[in-house]
């Protein structure tokens, strides 16, 4: 069963702020009080915007005596709503209700419109009872403006020697935000509030850091594993809180990095790996809503299988449940992959893998599985215009130390086959090998071990990258939503890291739908602006930049690495050039001097800027020879 709510629309590229408004942690108690008031007598529901069902998904109307359902849209008149015939709101004057519930925010104008039809001595209630204080709104004129709900959830833990750190910058002030603040709401595993506070944001571009160990000490909190809800007050330009999330431990057995949670719940997630015999895989299920998730609503199935095993446990509002995937799928083994039946109950979840033999732990995330995509037969005909078309690039870490693995992952419910191949390039962009996966069935899980297929062949530079692309000689079923999981093992430390992402069209002026993707303005996106947080000592920071091109583009990049201080000031910069089709693996300690890093303060970062081409990047932390982390990068 899925929640019948509208969250994110892939066609419009936007989210539904009404959903965020009714599920906000500060609105839940107000909504329950509103329901109590509606139980005082017969209720007529006026639903001018068709939002009552979405509200009732989180706050059921049980126990309320509903004696009429009224609408504004004449096309809705006569239709059935929960056993009630929809009447025109002009018929409201004939009602014998005691309460009228206007199912809308900013309800004053709707109330004014129906004064002529309101029975005498009738109390009018609306969703404005749920409103946040005006001081928490970026746009006070339109309550459900997206900028009023510039929010996100983050996995947040400080327990058993394990810690989390969120790093971002004040990018809102670059878009005109004046004196923005961050409202922070820390929730424990049972869904209860641990702490609530406002964080005054620093100047434009300055670093913002939330460290679980510091926050726990600040508020004298017990150990916790839960969620940190973040809301930017006074936002401009962006209605999503983007961040890098590091998980680290008191020893080197825990180190990983991931990124923002994608603030819109989805029905399905995919790309969750099954464990090896030496691993435990835990899926952290974190309820994003003020509604309890009933038992039997969350399920797992092997990719390509219709047999879904459901979790027979309840998860409280905003609560966290630690699900060992072996609890539901005890026989699942790597490289099998698992599909998550989420029912729009949570934003993109995290999974945590523990290696039993050495105790090392890492965290990564599945991805949103699209329901709205269908194969496009035209894609197979566009090679002459768009070359490689969609490219999914990923690092091949130095072969003398690391093992690199790629696992294609279906990421749309309509994908029955994946005709793909892998191209392996050295650092200078020279093609070293082509591997054909063939036309993979949805149920196939084929992990490609790069070191093995190279069979001892060395890459010029010692490292490189691979590109997974469509292979139209194997099949023509393609929709552009091409994904894979990339796993890396450090043979020195025994630590591992993994990340997953999707394909894009890169570096061609010709466009296909919204590709090459542009984060500001219309496609094509042909420039780069990536954020790289710099780890505090004893960690070094690494970055692997890849220059993929669907068609030949500029022979080399013109890439500036700019070190910024905690206050957002540029401290130093260096220009590097990456060959088209090649990559560059570098460390912050190799690019910038010790004095420059010292002058950058306690939370510096690097902005990677290129106005000539679109690069794709991966970042991570290095803990000497003990552990490392890796994930793909993002920009503002």
Give a written overview of the molecule.
With 636 residues, the chain is mainly beta. It has 3 domains: 123 residues, Rossmann fold (3-Layer(aba) Sandwich), CATH 3.40.50; 216 residues; 256 residues, no CATH class. The two termini are 35 Å apart.
List keywords for this structure.
636 residues, mainly beta, Rossmann fold, 3 domains, six-stranded mixed sheet, five-stranded antiparallel sheet, 9 helices, 43 strands, globular
Low-confidence stretches: none
Shape: globular
Mean pLDDT: 95
Give me the side-by-side strand order of the main sheet: 5-6-4-3-7-8
Beta-sheet strand percentage?
Answer: 35-45%
| Class from secondary-structure proportions | mainly beta
Q: What is the number of E strands? A: 43
Count of alpha/pi helices: 9
Radius of gyration, in Å, reads 26 Å
Q: Characterize the quaternary organization of these chains.
A: single chain
Characterize the main sheet. Answer: 6 strands, mixed
What is the domain tally? 3
Helix content: under 10%
Give the distance, in angstroms, between the N- and C-terminal Cα atoms. Answer: 35 Å
How would the blueprint of this fold be written?
Layout: E1 8-9, E2 14-15, H1 17-23, H2 28-38, E3 43-46, H3 52-58, E4 66-71, E5 80-81, E6 84-88, E7 99-102, H4 108-113, E8 123-126, E9 151-158, E10 162-169, E11 181-187, E12 193-200, E13 207-211, H5 212-218, E14 224-233, E15 244-249, E16 255-259, E17 268-273, E18 279-286, E19 299-302, E20 309-310, E21 320-324, E22 337-341, E23 350-355, E24 361-364, E25 367-368, H6 383-386, E26 390-396, E27 402-409, E28 417-426, E29 431-441, E30 448-449, H7 450-454, E31 464-470, E32 483-490, E33 496-502, E34 504-505, E35 528-533, E36 540-546, E37 559-564, E38 570-576, E39 583-587, H8 588-591, H9 594-599, E40 605-610, E41 616-623, E42 627-628, E43 631-632
Parallel strand pairs: 3-4, 3-7, 4-6, 7-8
Antiparallel strand pairs: 1-2, 5-6, 9-14, 10-13, 10-15, 11-12, 11-14, 15-16, 17-22, 17-25, 18-21, 18-23, 19-20, 19-22, 23-24, 26-31, 26-34, 27-30, 27-32, 28-29, 28-31, 32-33, 35-40, 36-39, 36-41, 37-38, 37-40, 41-42, 41-43
């Amino acid at each position: 069963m899925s929640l019948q709510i509208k969250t994110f629309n892939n066609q419009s590229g936007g989210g539904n702020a009404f959903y965020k408004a009714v599920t906000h942690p500060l609105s839940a108690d107000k909504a329950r009080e509103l329901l109590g008031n509606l139980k005082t007598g017969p209720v007529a529901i006026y639903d001018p915007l068709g939002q009552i069902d979405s509200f009732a998904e989180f706050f059921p109307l049980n126990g309320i005596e509903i004696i009429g359902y009224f609408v504004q849209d004449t096309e809705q008149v006569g239709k059935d709503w929960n056993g009630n015939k929809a009447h025109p709101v002009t018929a409201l004057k004939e009602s014998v209700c005691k309460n009228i519930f206007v199912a809308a925010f900013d309800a004053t104008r709707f109330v004014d419109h129906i004064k002529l039809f309101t029975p005498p001595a009738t109390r009018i209630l609306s969703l404005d009872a749920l409103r946040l204080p005006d001081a928490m709104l970026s746009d006070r004129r339109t309550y459900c403006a997206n900028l009023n709900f510039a929010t996100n959830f983050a996995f947040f833990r400080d327990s058993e020697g394990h810690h989390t750190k969120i790093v971002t910058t004040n990018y809102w002030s670059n878009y005109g935000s004046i004196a923005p603040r961050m409202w922070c709401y820390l929730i424990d595993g049972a869904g209860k509030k641990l702490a609530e506070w406002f964080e005054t944001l620093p100047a434009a571009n300055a670093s913002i850091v939330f460290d679980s160990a510091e926050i726990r000490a600040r508020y004298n909190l017990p150990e916790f594993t839960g969620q940190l809800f973040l809301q930017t007050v006074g936002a401009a330009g962006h209605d999503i809180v983007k961040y890098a999330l590091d998980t680290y431990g008191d020893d080197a057995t825990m180190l990983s990095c991931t990124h923002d949670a994608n603030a819109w719940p989805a029905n399905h997630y995919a790309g969750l790996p099954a464990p090896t015999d030496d691993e435990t895989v835990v899926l952290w299920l974190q309820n994003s809503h003020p509604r309890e998730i009933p038992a039997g609503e969350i399920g797992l199935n092997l990719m390509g299988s219709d047999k879904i095993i459901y979790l027979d446990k309840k998860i409280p509002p905003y609560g966290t449940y630690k699900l060992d995937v072996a609890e539901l799928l005890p026989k699942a083994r790597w490289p099998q992959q698992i599909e998550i039946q989420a029912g729009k109950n949570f934003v993109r979840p995290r999974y945590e893998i523990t290696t039993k033999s050495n105790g090392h732990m890492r965290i990564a995330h599945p991805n949103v599985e699209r329901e709205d995509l269908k194969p496009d037969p035209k894609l197979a005909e566009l090679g002459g215009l768009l070359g490689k078309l969609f490219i999914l690039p990923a690092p091949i870490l130095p072969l003398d130390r690391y093992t690199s693995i790629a696992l294609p992952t279906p990421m749309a419910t309509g994908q029955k086959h994946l005709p793909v191949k892998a191209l392996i390039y050295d650092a200078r962009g020279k093609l070293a090998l082509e591997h054909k996966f063939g036309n993979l069935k949805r149920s196939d899980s084929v992990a490609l071990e790069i070191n093995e297929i190279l069979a001892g062949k060395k890459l010029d530079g010692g490292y490189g990258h691979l590109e997974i692309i469509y292979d139209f000689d194997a099949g023509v079923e393609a929709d552009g939503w091409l994904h894979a999981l990339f796993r890396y093992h450090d043979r020195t430390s025994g630590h591992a890291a993994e990340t997953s992402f999707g394909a894009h069209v890169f570096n061609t002026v010709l466009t296909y739908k919204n590709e090459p993707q542009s984060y500001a303005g219309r496609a094509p996106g042909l420039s780069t602006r990536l954020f790289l947080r710099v780890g505090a000592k004893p960690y070094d920071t690494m970055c692997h930049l890849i220059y993929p091109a669907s068609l030949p583009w500029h022979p080399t990049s013109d890439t500036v690495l700019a070190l910024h201080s905690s206050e957002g000031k540029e401290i130093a910069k260096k220009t590097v050039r990456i060959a088209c089709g090649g990559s560059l693996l570098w460390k912050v300690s190799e690019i910038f001097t010790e004095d420059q890093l010292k002058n950058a303060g306690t939370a510096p970062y690097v902005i990677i800027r290129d106005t000539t081409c679109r690069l794709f990047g991966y970042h991570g932390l290095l803990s000497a020879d003990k552990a490392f982390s890796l994930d793909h990068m993002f920009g503002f």
